[in-house]
Design a protein that fits this description.
This protein has six helices and eight strands; from the N terminus they run H-H-E-E-E-E-H-E-E-H-H-E-E-H. It is elongated, with a radius of gyration of 53 Å.
Length: about 220
Amino acid sequence: EETALAYFCQIGNPFYDRSSLNEQIYMKNLPAEAMLNATGIEYALIHRQDPVLYIIRKHFREGPNELRPLQEYYVLAPGHIYQAPDAASVISHRLLTAVHHFGKAFDEASQRAAYHPSSGYYWKTNNSSDELTKKDSSKDKVLTVTQRARFDAIFPNYHERFRPRIPAGTTTQTAIPPSTMNTEATTIPGGDTNLPRKEERTPSDSQSNISERPMIEVKKQKTQK
């Protein structure tokens, strides 16, 4: 313990404060117990792991039992001295390192992402360029089964939602249903029925029907008299 603390309190150590109580005790050749009632900066060995690790603390002594920690130092074999970082410095350094690596990962991922009309989104690899040229050379493959199924499922929905509306006040022409038309079917013995045919009327037939109606009414009036 005395050897590690004496090694730390050498003049060539940049972490050692020559105005500390340790330097005053050493210069005045006083016992170590004299520092208990003194006030000032003191260096003390708080942990040891022979022969590789020694931890020395720098604290401010305000009385026999009042100590305020200021800094800690590591003495590693074969005699290297390191200043221990505080918790805020460690956390900030770890966060900055994590953010840096996350940023590089996102940049790399954004450069690897690609899109092709026939295959959709994919990630670029070392062999993806050769595969992409092969896909471009084949012109027969226009749409995949997945893309065609998606189109068939989406298009009817939008067709019903955005159907064109007929403006108010306009009349629509309705087609005559086939059941209201005068049709007759001719049968052939031993065969099937032919297609229905429409009645053919000539203009003379329609005029004759109109001219017969008033004659019938006149005859009815004479019989009543």
